[in-house]
Amino acid sequence: MRLQGYLVKHGNNLFGDWRKRWCTVRGQTLYYRKSVDSKDVLGSIPLGACTLREVPGRRPHVFVLSVSNRQYQLQASGEDDLQKWLGVLKPLVKTYEPATKK
Fold first, then answer.
1. Which residue range forms the structural domain that includes residue 21?
2. Residue 66, SS3?
3. 80 three-class SS
4. What is the pLDDT of residues 60-94, one digit of tens each?
5. Which residues contact residue 11 at a Cβ distance below 8 angstroms, ignoring those fewer than 6 apart?
6. How many CB atoms lie within 10 A of CB 79?
7. Is 60 helix (H, G, I), strand (E, B) or coil?
8. Which residue of 22, 66, 81, 92 shows the fewest CB atoms closer than 10 Å?
9. Number of domains the chain contains
10. Burial of 70 by CB count in 10 Å (0-12 exposed, 13-18 middle, 19+ buried)?
11. Is residue 102 part of a domain?
12. What is the CATH number of the domain that holds 52?
Protein backbone atom coordinates (compact mmCIF):
# COMPACT_ATOMS: atom_id res chain seq x y z
CA MET A 1 0.00 0.00 0.00
CA ARG A 2 1.51 3.29 -1.07
CA LEU A 3 -1.00 5.86 0.22
CA GLN A 4 -4.38 6.04 1.91
CA GLY A 5 -6.58 8.76 3.32
CA TYR A 6 -9.75 10.74 2.81
CA LEU A 7 -10.50 12.59 -0.41
CA VAL A 8 -13.76 14.27 -1.35
CA LYS A 9 -15.12 12.72 -4.56
CA HIS A 10 -17.53 14.38 -6.97
CA GLY A 11 -20.52 12.13 -7.50
CA ASN A 12 -21.33 10.70 -10.90
CA ASN A 13 -25.05 10.96 -10.24
CA LEU A 14 -27.80 13.39 -11.20
CA PHE A 15 -27.01 15.74 -8.29
CA GLY A 16 -23.22 15.69 -8.69
CA ASP A 17 -22.68 16.09 -4.95
CA TRP A 18 -19.30 15.86 -3.24
CA ARG A 19 -18.79 13.06 -0.71
CA LYS A 20 -15.93 12.14 1.55
CA ARG A 21 -14.37 8.79 0.57
CA TRP A 22 -11.58 6.68 2.07
CA CYS A 23 -9.10 6.18 -0.77
CA THR A 24 -6.28 3.67 -1.00
CA VAL A 25 -3.61 3.37 -3.68
CA ARG A 26 -2.49 -0.23 -3.99
CA GLY A 27 -0.40 -1.34 -6.95
CA GLN A 28 -1.67 0.44 -10.07
CA THR A 29 -5.19 1.04 -8.70
CA LEU A 30 -6.94 3.65 -6.56
CA TYR A 31 -9.79 2.09 -4.55
CA TYR A 32 -12.45 4.11 -2.73
CA ARG A 33 -14.81 3.18 0.10
CA LYS A 34 -17.42 5.01 2.12
CA SER A 35 -15.18 5.18 5.21
CA VAL A 36 -12.00 3.81 6.75
CA ASP A 37 -14.08 1.13 8.52
CA SER A 38 -16.07 0.09 5.45
CA LYS A 39 -15.26 -3.35 4.04
CA ASP A 40 -17.11 -2.73 0.75
CA VAL A 41 -15.19 -1.13 -2.11
CA LEU A 42 -17.45 1.38 -3.88
CA GLY A 43 -15.20 1.63 -6.91
CA SER A 44 -11.73 1.47 -8.34
CA ILE A 45 -9.71 3.50 -10.84
CA PRO A 46 -7.03 1.78 -12.98
CA LEU A 47 -4.23 4.33 -12.75
CA GLY A 48 -2.07 2.95 -15.58
CA ALA A 49 -4.72 3.99 -18.11
CA CYS A 50 -5.43 7.42 -16.54
CA THR A 51 -4.65 11.00 -17.31
CA LEU A 52 -4.04 13.01 -14.12
CA ARG A 53 -4.91 16.69 -14.34
CA GLU A 54 -4.64 19.46 -11.76
CA VAL A 55 -7.70 21.70 -11.90
CA PRO A 56 -7.58 25.24 -10.54
CA GLY A 57 -11.04 26.67 -10.00
CA ARG A 58 -13.78 27.41 -7.53
CA ARG A 59 -12.97 24.39 -5.36
CA PRO A 60 -9.38 24.34 -4.11
CA HIS A 61 -7.03 21.32 -4.20
CA VAL A 62 -8.96 19.43 -6.91
CA PHE A 63 -7.45 16.97 -9.36
CA VAL A 64 -9.08 14.83 -12.03
CA LEU A 65 -8.34 11.25 -13.03
CA SER A 66 -9.68 10.54 -16.54
CA VAL A 67 -9.95 7.02 -17.89
CA SER A 68 -11.86 5.96 -21.02
CA ASN A 69 -14.84 8.33 -21.07
CA ARG A 70 -15.15 8.79 -17.30
CA GLN A 71 -13.71 11.55 -15.13
CA TYR A 72 -13.17 11.27 -11.39
CA GLN A 73 -12.91 14.65 -9.65
CA LEU A 74 -11.18 14.38 -6.29
CA GLN A 75 -10.44 17.05 -3.69
CA ALA A 76 -7.64 16.89 -1.15
CA SER A 77 -8.01 18.52 2.27
CA GLY A 78 -5.24 21.08 1.70
CA GLU A 79 -2.18 21.96 -0.37
CA ASP A 80 0.13 19.58 1.54
CA ASP A 81 -2.37 16.74 1.16
CA LEU A 82 -2.77 17.53 -2.56
CA GLN A 83 1.00 17.41 -3.12
CA LYS A 84 1.20 14.09 -1.23
CA TRP A 85 -1.47 12.51 -3.48
CA LEU A 86 0.01 13.98 -6.68
CA GLY A 87 3.47 12.73 -5.70
CA VAL A 88 2.20 9.15 -5.41
CA LEU A 89 -0.14 9.27 -8.42
CA LYS A 90 2.13 10.96 -11.02
CA PRO A 91 4.46 7.97 -11.55
CA LEU A 92 1.49 5.57 -11.78
CA VAL A 93 -0.62 7.32 -14.44
CA LYS A 94 -0.23 7.29 -18.21
CA THR A 95 -0.23 11.11 -18.58
CA TYR A 96 0.13 14.03 -16.17
CA GLU A 97 -1.11 17.56 -16.94
CA PRO A 98 -0.08 20.22 -14.40
CA ALA A 99 -2.34 23.15 -13.58
CA THR A 100 -2.16 25.99 -16.07
CA LYS A 101 -1.94 29.51 -14.69
CA LYS A 102 -4.39 32.02 -16.18
1. 3-97
2. strand
3. helix
4. 999 999 998 899 999 999 999 999 999 999 999 99
5. 17, 18, 19
6. 10
7. coil
8. 81
9. 1
10. exposed
11. no
12. 2.30.29.30
